What we know:
This protein is α/β, with parallel strands linked by helices. It is built from 21 helices and 10 strands. The chain has helices spanning 2-5, 14-43, 51-101, 104-110, 112-154, 156-203, 205-210, 214-234, 236-265, 276-298, 300-317, 378-385, 408-414, 429-434, 442-451, 455-460, 478-492, 508-522, 534-538, 557-562, 566-578, and strands at residues 339-346, 355-362, 367-371, 393-398, 401-402, 415-418, 496-499, 526-530, 542-547, 550-555.
Amino acid sequence: MKSVLGNRGLFQGWWITAILAVVAASGRIVVPLTVQYALDHALLDESAPDRTRVLVDSVVVGAIAIAIAGTSSCLLNRRLVSTVETALASVRERAFEHIFRLSPASVAQIGTGTLVARLTGDIDTVSQFTRAGGITLVINVSQMIVAATVMFVFSWPLALLVMAVTAAAVVCMRLIQRVVARRFAVVRVEVAALYDGVSDLVNGAEMIRAFGASDRYRTRVGDLVERTRHAQMNTQLPLNINASLGEAASGIITSAVVLVGAAAGAGYVGWIDLTAGQLVAFLFLITFFVRPMQFTVSMLGEAQSAVAGWRRVEELLAQPVETVSDEDGVTLPDGGIALELSDVRFGYDEGSTALSIPELYIDSHEHVAVVGHTGSGKSTFAKLLTRQLSPTEGVVSLASVNLSSVAPASLARRVAIVPQDAFLFDRSIAENVAIARPGAGDSDVMDIMRDLGLEDWVRTLPAGLDTQVGAHGEALSAGERQLVALARTALVDPDLLVLDEATSGVDPATDVRVQRALLRLTKGRTTVTIAHRMITAENADRILLFEDGKLAEQGTHEALVASEGRYASMFRAWTSMNTL
């Protein structure tokens, strides 16, 4: 954990933690010492001058020791929980920041459910372990050390006997612990897969109901649940074996000490010299040594689960980022943004090519439409321009700056993309728009609505800008969701605008508003539109036709129609279909 927690982790001020743990453990060990003293100097010694005073002093010392141990334990608990939770909060922040810097391809490869599991369940496993048993584990380990030390003071031969049996048990437990570790790693993987399955089920619930696929998904989720249950059950056998070994070790140690102690008292073992009080105290010390060991064994499962979860968090933080930080990145120069692609190739898999563009230049303030059949490379091209994907080879430049070196904050201020299905948070329209610019208020949002000609639409809403959009914007129509997305983009005031056919799927009643807002939004900006309708391409300054991942044709609408090439064929097919 140290590699992740760093200076803010458990290792900061470790000596204070160690002192509190030793004091808490020593306070408990004082009790058998007071029992030994009371037995040898009062209860079993009839010649003692003041037996009552010895008993009272023993009780007082034991009570004070217990009070000190309890106070130290409380302080240790508070210190460790505070330190761990502070460190985990820092890790959560780092993990969120790290995810924002991962490429969309990496996020898709890892899986949304897995990311959620690592940010919540895996980190919470560490927190729960700390609260449930981690504190007691620290105290018990300290108690074992102190108890062993006192046992060696009383009788090193008996102490060696205790250590020998314990060592044999620990070796066996260690071997079983490796099995436990592997099986808990499998548990965390299965839990992440379950998160993925549940995430798909919740997000696609409406579609699943619409297509009557509930039985199929119920079977799929049921299989994931069963795999998770099976993985959890596989951890129980080695855990139970470990617990049994702890009980067996306790019984063997206690029996051996009683037998040797009795033999010594009868004169059969001359090399052990213990008083009756010391023997009783030694038996107490065995309990203070073995019981913590048994607890440690019982906590191995939770500890291994916490370690497995922690390693998965470390794996996430070790994922290479594909974007620079704001501190290391380059700020785009002021003014319009021109695009330039040089020897660009991109493949989703090693050795494959989804898009190949030897050379392409888009001037600032130019409106370019991108057309082509499904799978031709249009969306890949748009993602390369907005750094949602990074080219496998070649360079994409914005305003003569390599896109890979642009600072995220600068890119967010100067470049915006409006997808076909814009994501909306379960908040008001005003909040969904204002998220685009820190510090923006309702007045700024309303100004943008006026600029886009959407003021009349806002007045038709039940609560105006305060209208709640619902989860994923389900309270709005597809066209209304696009209006919110366009307003959000306008608030950014970008110099480069990438539109993934923002008017496709828009209901006719809202289409006029969307087209009017788009006309105002694209004015004076470099605009790249992924066109699914040919009417969108007609209004562009230039058209790029992609085919099989390559730029097959480019030019104005009139020139391409006159050339009788692929675009002309597509346009005629679209025109004839829409005149039927």
